[in-house]
Amino acid sequence: MKSPGKLTKREEQIYQITTLVAGGFALGEVLDKLSRAAVEITGASACSIRLLDDETGELKMRSTFGLSDEYRNKGPVTRDDPVIKAAFAGEAVIIDDMRDDSRVRYKDASKREGIISQLTVAMQFKNTSIGVLRLYRPRIGGFMEDDIALARSVASQCAIAITNAKYYARAIAGEQVAQQVKLAGIIQRRMIPETAPKMPGLEIAAAYKPCFGVGGDLYDFIKLDDNNIAITIADVIGKGIPAALTMSSFRGMIRAYADGGHKRHTMAEIIRKLNNTACEECRDGEFITLFYAIINTKELSMTYCNCGHEPTLLWRGGKIRELKKGGLVLGVTKETEYEIERVELKHNDRLLFYTDGLIDAVNFDGKIWGINNLYKTFKQCVMGTAREIVNNTLILRRRFIGLARQTDDTSMVVVRITDKRG
User: Fold this and answer.
1) pTM, whole model, 2 decimals?
2) What pLDDT, in 10s, does the model give residues 232-260?
3) Cα(224)–Cα(222) distance, rounded to whole angstroms?
4) S-S: 119 plus which of 140, 143, 201, 398, CB 3.0-4.6 Å?
């Protein structure tokens, strides 16, 4: 085999095309290099490269050399064009005079451009046509049979280089998306508080475990005054970046309505406003579950509304009560009515707020951890601090599921009612 230094000039030019195959070049740059190289190698006066658009069926002009912008934009060419059909069937199509050949659609454009003869060959990758290479000369009968082999050789190398450039573009796009997902995950984790505000009589701990880097879970703490704190936990039905964006917007609405400035809204008003906004913003099949609670440390009470969310668990004296009062998920209909309940709290009560990802975790045998295991674990861990309850619950769940990949985000908040109220 000849080394590049011993190649003929033409072989060396074709070899230069092959260097584009291994290079990390953008598609536009590759196409411009290829159209110029095709003219230089074949001795044609001009060249055009059209690539097939799988959606429209058109062969879009992607690069030219030696042709005017007017000719480039003369009109569409589809795969039903007789010359294209023949080229895709494996023929090398020579047109001796484009000015009066019935197969030529844009005869007037050819006349104005001063090109007369044409040679069209398909560019194929793994026996699949991806476009056509067209060469032009300004005289009748400008292409002979001897030109076909060279044109095919150039077209073959072009197909490989173009495909490589597309893969390169996809790889770059994939890296960009990965970086965007990573950034979105960082931003989302910054929105989820690491710690709760200090409140006399309360000990609060929480955990958030997204399954795809970003997700649709949310918990938040909003200190309303010295005696009241709002605790919210929610789940957007969906995964990844869309769910995270929806939840980001939803978090802002919760904080705006909960704070309320000089005019604080009642819980019923807040839930109604959140539901109305969700009905307007959520698309078909999208909705949001929410458990919204306000704990009053002075009165030792909790007022809450459960909007289609997993019921918060109240542990007291060895027994667990599910807090279910509320209504439908948010975003179904503006006419939904929601029930508000007030619960008295006692010293040493424990509250466990969570999203369904906590109990829906599945092991390699397809068995779900489930609510029964959560009850068992909560009772087993309940005498620890709030942080110990969170950590030990996640540890025991991990022992059950092993390293099985999960498909839903997990969030949990534990509140322990202490007797230290300052």
Assistant:
1) 0.59
2) 999 887 555 666 667 777 787 888 888 75
3) 6
4) 143
